[in-house]
Design a protein that fits this description.
Helix content is 39%, strand content 31%. The longest helix is centred in the last third of the chain and has 14 residues.
């Protein structure tokens, strides 16, 4: 099983909207979310809110049988759920998943970590 951790800054003023996004995943969109993740071979997805001196950041940890395939499908899928998911990522983080590039921040103080959403497939 392979995993990846993705870290995206949350746009100013969007922390509560990000929390509502997580609530939707575990509530009104849970059935579509679970179907998506099972189809993609994702066995665990965990979202955490990290508060740093640079602002709020969301860290998503994903484990999957084939992480590259799963991420590729999230990025490229025409299915309604993945389309909705990409729109929320763009709105909340300003990140187009197809163009994402990780750039670590040097000199950052230790962050605080709050797990906000976790899903484990069975």
């Amino acid at each position: 099983m392979l995993g990846i951790a993705l870290t995206f800054p949350i746009r100013p003023g969007k922390v509560e909207a990000w929390r509502r996004f997580c609530q939707e995943l575990s509530g009104s969109r849970l059935q579509a979310y679970e179907a998506s993740r099972r189809r993609l071979g994702i066995t665990l997805e965990q979202m955490a809110l990290v508060d740093t001196k640079f602002g709020a950041t969301a860290t998503t940890t994903i484990e999957a049988h084939d992480v590259n395939r799963a991420l590729g499908q999230i990025i490229a899928s025409d299915l309604a759920f993945e389309h909705w998911y990409r729109e929320r990522i763009l709105e909340l983080h300003g990140v187009d998943l197809a163009g994402y590039e990780y750039r670590p921040q040097n000199g950052a103080s230790p962050p605080t970590l709050e797990i906000v959403f976790e899903w484990v497939g069975h």
